[in-house]
Amino acid sequence: MSKSGSIAEIQMDKKINIKKKISKSTLNEWKWGYIMIFPTFIGLMVLNIIPAIQTFILSFEKAGAFGKSTWVGLNNYKRLFQDAAVLQSVLNTLKYAVIVVPATVILSLIVAVLLNKKIKGISAYRTIYFLPMVAAPAAIAMVWRWLFNSEYGLINYLLSIIGISGPKWLTDPNMGLISIAIVGIWSSIGYNMILLLAGLQEIPKDYYEAASIDGASPLRQFFTITIPLVSPTMFFVVVTSVISAFQVFDVIFMMIDPTNPALGKTQSLVYLFYKYSFTLNDKGYGSAIVMLLLAIIMIITVIQVKCQKKWVNY
Fold this sequence. Notes:
mainly alpha
């Protein structure tokens, strides 16, 4: 064999060995990657995917005595679209989302911008705004229920000092949903503020310095630099805020009694699902209601993903 042939074989062996090493390294990374995501995958399957499949199957059944169910096909869905309470709950949920989501995103962004400045005691302010996320929702609802009390609540008392007769915040059908939306906005600002604050801190300071040199005012910098560059984070906040708004339940459950005349104008789809599934023990119909909610959330999320290309700057 010639010398050149042996050199070529040696080089070929080296290439094969390098490929084998890369292949083993890649396989090792894949192995550890799957090991790391396995607990999350199991949790997702057990707590989300499997219950969702079971709920979908249950929506075609009617719960009977002793835990037995009978197959009724599409009867639950036919009843669903003929039920005035369901249609009213869909309208209530949409109204709540329309009130809460824009207000939450706008106020959270304003607070995040203000708390992104170098001011004294900035950590204390950030903590104060985030406190509603730490407190128990039931405790928050009870405090707000006292504040909104039309007879001895603090809000109406303060209004009476300046000569204004406060409304019946929780018992007036026209005010009940607004009162719940106020609590929803107040309790969501802190969490969204943290997310937007993280997005703001990723924006290079050079852009603002260059804009200041060119004579751009702080307001113009906000609309031409801050909003476009924080739009990916804002998109995430909008999507999660919409999903959270459509899943509102605990505030309604704690603040509005079943005998409250405003219940019909404030109950959401999740509240109606709870009512039929756990109070009236009609789990099949309750499952159909929650599947309707899932369909609405999926449709709105798809629309948001399609529209994000027009206003999100990556």
